[in-house]
Structures are given as structure tokens and as C-alpha cells.
Write a structure and sequence with these properties.
This protein is of the alpha/beta class. The chain contains 15 helices and 15 strands. The strands form four sheets. A seven-stranded mixed beta sheet has the order 2-8-7-6-5-3-4, with helices on both faces. Strands 11-12-15-14 form a four-stranded antiparallel beta sheet, covered by helices on one side.
């Protein structure tokens, strides 16, 4: 089997920061849109917490617990700075973007909706930004409306505006992804937020695919809610963030109950703590949050612009190579894309192709990528998706293209 060189600067030195490539030097990991690999500093931060600072937060009256609490809140401040939020109290720790969306759907949107009202999402949403809204609409006898997407993968904002105008204020929430996990489309969220808010709707942005490569300023965006997951930004699994405007967090009901989120408890009633503690019931993923703080440090030291530029260069290279391979059709041709490339191969099922590539140590995702309604709209069963990150190289892209050319001969 061919050994792929990993000597393209700056990637050679960057790869050394990721232990998985020391254990699997042959690995061509092109699935960072599903979960990113973890730098050693993130793994060390989790280990250090358990070895040096392991105690529960905001509870113990002893030094170790105080150190754990200060570490926990310092990560909240790092997230505040990353998002340019005005107050750390606007930052809620969750188990991921999915948990944050569910919290807003059940704790906020459910109280806005009356029968006949609507929630507006886009046709390219991940199931995590679809099903929670679908379910709350069913509970409240509301409607789920969809912003259409062109065959090239571009949202129809004129149609969106028409929908909002036709509804005359009945759309209470708009929930849209910043970067599509399937198409790579970068949506114009500033325009979407302004359009929705002019028609009286609150807005949630799913930034899971963009937070590591795009500078997000929640104050400049004036977004109501924003979510992301730690594991897609080089951090631990089971960690995530919900940002919310203070006025909406104050109005939002908790949907999980227990220790740590109360001010006073009696058998007859409970008085809940103010945000963010109100929404952080139970013992958090403390080691994971320590790792999330290390991931933010690593991203800022590396540079979001560097991460974005490298992924885009590999995307452009892969697009040029793959579109010249007979039988391949690229799915998603938006003018502005992030480092995600989806494609189908005539007469080869995506799962078969992914299995073939795995024999060459190439890790890609195959299927509907948790965007099944989008696949139905595009009239395809699924795609093969290659997603690029800072630890990938031009040589790996060449190896992917060569392997796809050979796959065509193998399956013919």
C-alpha cells in the first residue's frame, strides 16, 4: 500500500500535535465535518484535570473545589471572548449543539408558539436543527416552514423574505446553519438574521461547522441564539455551547432539573438560579470543559484565518481534480463554500465507495449526513463527503483523486 507523504508546510509540524497520526501514520482522515481530531494539548488538559483538579464545581468549601470552579468559569470567559459576547453569563455549557437547540426549542420557542404560528428552517439543516423544531411545532399545533435551496446549494433569500411577508408575523423562530455540513455552503447569516428580525422572528444560528474557521461576533450579528459543539472544533466530545441574548435567557425556562441550577428548594416550590446556572443542572462534563478551553487556546494560537485558508485551498484542489474524473458529480456548487466536498459517482453506491477508500486508509463519510430531506430534494440516496482540516495535505488530496480514478476501473 502506498505511503502518503505528509510534508507540506505548515501541515507537517501541525500533524505532530495530533497523537492519532503518530499511532496511525498511514491515516488520511477526511471526516473532520463529523468530528475533528484532537491536539495533544486538549488530551493533556483533560488528563491534567483528573490528575490535579478533580472536584465538583460551585459546591465544595475547600481549595480543590475552588480551583475546579475557577477553571470551569475561566473556560466560560474564553468562549465569551471567542464569540465576542458582552457577558460571560450569556454562555451556557451543554453536551453539544444538539442539546443547545433542544433547550431553545422547548424552553423558549414552545412558549412563543400558538396554534397556527410557524418556525422557519432551511432545506439544508442537519437533523439536529430540524427535528427539535418539528417536534415543538407538533406539540403546539404550529407549522414548520422551509427555505428552499437551489440545486447548486444556495438558499433562496428572496423566497425567504416572501415567506416572512406572507406570514405577517406568525413566524416566531428562524433556525439556520452557518455552514452546511453536507454541501459546504457558507450562508449569509448577517443578512438572514436582519431579514428575520425585521419581521419579528427570533433567530438561532447553528455554527457547529464554522466556529473554528470563521470569526463570530454575536454582538455585531445581533443574533438571538447561537450553538456549536466542542468535538467539531478539536475539543472533546460531550461538550458544547449555547449563546443567548441576556433578555431571552432570563425569559427561558429550564428543561432539565436537579442540583446546581437552583436558588432555593422547598417541597412546595423551587426558585431557580439565574442564567447560566439555571440551565446547567447536575454535574457538568468538567474534564471535557477543561479540554474545550484548551481547544479554544489551540485555535486562537493557530489562527482561524490559517485554518480557513488551508481548508479552502484543499477544497479548491480537490474540486479541480474530482470534476475532471469521468462519472463524478459534485453536489453543492455554491459560490462561497467551506472545506467540505460532497460528490456522487455514477453507478457506485456511496457506501461501496467509502469501503473501497477505507482499504486505502482514506476516511470519508458516506450517506445522507443527517440531512435526509435535502437528499430527497436532490433526488439522490446520499453522497460521499470529504471534509478537510489543518492536518490534511495536498498529497492526501492527490491520493484521494488517484484512488477514485482506480475505483472507477475496479467497479466497472
Amino acid at each position: 500500500m502506498k505511503q502518503i507523504p505528509h510534508n507540506s508546510p505548515p501541515t507537517a509540524s501541525v500533524r505532530q500535535a495530533f497523537p492519532i497520526f503518530r499511532h496511525h501514520p498511514e491515516l488520511v482522515y477526511l471526516d473532520s465535518a463529523a468530528t475533528a481530531q484532537k491536539p495533544e494539548s486538549v488530551i493533556d488538559a483533560e488528563r491534567h484535570f483528573y490528575e490535579h483538579t478533580n472536584a465538583n464545581v460551585h459546591r465544595g468549601a475547600y481549595r480543590l473545589a475552588d480551583e475546579a470552579s475557577r477553571l470551569y468559569e475561566s473556560v466560560r470567559e474564553k468562549v465569551r471572548h471567542l464569540l465576542h459576547a458582552s457577558d460571560a453569563r450569556q454562555i451556557i455549557f451543554t453536551s453539544g449543539a444538539t442539546a443547545g437547540i433542544n433547550l431553545v426549542a422547548q424552553g423558549f420557542a414552545a412558549d412563543l408558539l400558538t396554534p397556527g404560528d410557524a418556525i422557519l428552517i432551511s432545506a439544508m439543516e442537519h437533523h439536529a436543527n430540524l427535528i427539535p423544531w418539528q417536534q415543538v411545532c407538533l406539540q403546539k399545533q404550529a407549522r414548520l416552514l422551509v427555505i428552499h435551496v437551489s440545486p447548486e446549494g444556495v438558499l433562496d433569500l428572496e423566497a425567504m423574505e416572501h415567506q416572512l411577508e406572507q406570514e405577517c408575523g406568525r413566524v416566531k423562530m428562524v433556525a439556520v446553519v452557518h455552514v452546511s455540513n453536507t454541501l459546504g455552503t457558507v450562508n449569509p447569516i448577517q443578512e438572514i438574521i436582519g431579514l428575520a428580525q425585521r419581521h419579528g422572528a427570533r433567530v438561532l444560528i447553528d455554527a457547529a461547522q464554522s466556529v473554528s474557521t470563521h470569526r463570530l461576533d454575536v454582538q455585531a450579528l445581533e443574533v438571538d441564539f447561537l450553538v456549536f459543539s466542542g468535538h467539531k472544533m478539536f475539543g472533546p466530545t460531550g461538550t458544547g455551547i449555547l449563546y443567548g441574548k441576556q433578555e431571552w435567557l432570563e425569559a427561558m425556562r429550564p428543561v432539565q432539573f436537579g442540583g446546581g441550577m437552583i436558588r432555593d428548594v422547598q417541597f412546595e416550590k423551587t426558585v431557580f438560579a439565574p442564567p447560566p446556572q439555571r440551565f446547567e443542572a447536575g454535574t457538568p462534563n468538567l474534564a471535557g470543559i477543561a479540554g474545550l478551553g484548551a481547544a479554544i487556546d489551540w485555535i486562537q494560537e493557530t489562527g482561524q484565518e490559517v485554518l480557513a485558508r488551508h481548508a479552502t485551498q484543499l477544497l479548491d484542489q480537490a474540486t479541480d481534480l474530482l470534476q475532471n474524473i469521468p462519472g463524478i458529480r459534485i453536489i453543492g456548487q455554491a459560490p462561497e463554500k467551506s472545506g467540505i466536498l460532497s460528490f456522487v459517482f455514477d453507478d457506485i453506491h456511496p457506501h461501496d465507495l467509502a469501503t473501497y477508500l477505507d482499504q486505502r486508509h482514506i476516511c470519508v463519510r458516506a450517506g445522507h449526513h443527517c440531512t435526509q430531506p435535502l437528499m430527497d430534494f436532490l433526488e439522490i440516496p446520499g453522497t460521499v463527503r470529504a471534509s478537510f482540516s489543518i492536518y490534511n495535505t495536498p498529497e492526501e488530496v492527490e491520493w484521494l483523486a488517484q484512488s477514485l480514478r482506480e475505483a472507477r476501473a475496479f467497479f466497472s
